[in-house]
Write a structure and sequence with these properties.
The protein is of the alpha+beta class and about 150 residues long. It has a single domain, classed as 2-Layer Sandwich (Alpha-D-Glucose-1,6-Bisphosphate, Chain A, domain 4), CATH 3.30.530.20. About 35% of the residues lie in helices and about 40% in strands. It has a seven-stranded antiparallel sheet. Helix 1 crosses helix 3.
Length: about 150
C-alpha cells in the first residue's frame, strides 16, 4: 500500500498541541478540506469513531475508527472515504507532530495514484500540519500574554 507522511515542528508542551488536535470545534481552522462533524461514536478520540464531511468538492464522508490511542503519543485510525481506505497514524513527540496515511484506492488506478493522488494526499497532510502548527503557536502566544 502507498504511504504518505508529513511532519511539523510545534511549540511545547505537546499536551497543548494534542488538545488542539482532538478539539473538533477547531478542525475548520486546520484540517484540510474539513466541512463539519456528522457524528462522534464511543469515547473518541480514545476509542470509537468520528464521521465527518468534507467541504463540497472534497473527500465526501470520512469515517475514522480508532484502533490505538495513547495520551501524548498519538492515535491510529482505520479510515474510509468514498475513494480510499487505509490507516491514519498520528504521532506526537517533543516539539513535533507527524501524520502518516497508509492507503488503498477503492478502484485500481495505480498510475493515477502514482502521478496524481499520492501528491495530493501528501500536500493535504502538509497543509493540515502547517495550519495546526500556526494554531498551536497562536495559542501559546495567547497563553503567554495572558
Amino acid at each position: 500500500m502507498p504511504v504518505v507522511r508529513a511532519s511539523v515542528a510545534v511549540p511545547e508542551p505537546i499536551f497543548h498541541v494534542e488538545q488542539l488536535w482532538y478539539d473538533t470545534a477547531r478542525w475548520p481552522s486546520f484540517v484540510d478540506g474539513f466541512g463539519h462533524v456528522v457524528k462522534v461514536e464511543g469515547d473518541w478520540p480514545r476509542a470509537g469513531a468520528i464521521l465527518w464531511d468534507s467541504r463540497p468538492g472534497g473527500r465526501g464522508r470520512v469515517i475514522e475508527e480508532v484502533r490505538w490511542f495513547s495520551p501524548r503519543e498519538g492515535q491510529d485510525a482505520a479510515i474510509e472515504d468514498p475513494k480510499l481506505t487505509g490507516t491514519q497514524r498520528l504521532r506526537f513527540a517533543p516539539g513535533r507532530v507527524t501524520l502518516e496515511l497508509d492507503y488503498r484506492l477503492k478502484e485500481s488506478m495505480w498510475l493515477v495514484d502514482l502521478l496524481v493522488v499520492r501528491g495530493r494526499l501528501h500536500r493535504a497532510l502538509e497543509r493540515t500540519l502547517r495550519r495546526l502548527a500556526i494554531e498551536a503557536v497562536s495559542d501559546a502566544e495567547l497563553h503567554a500574554a495572558g
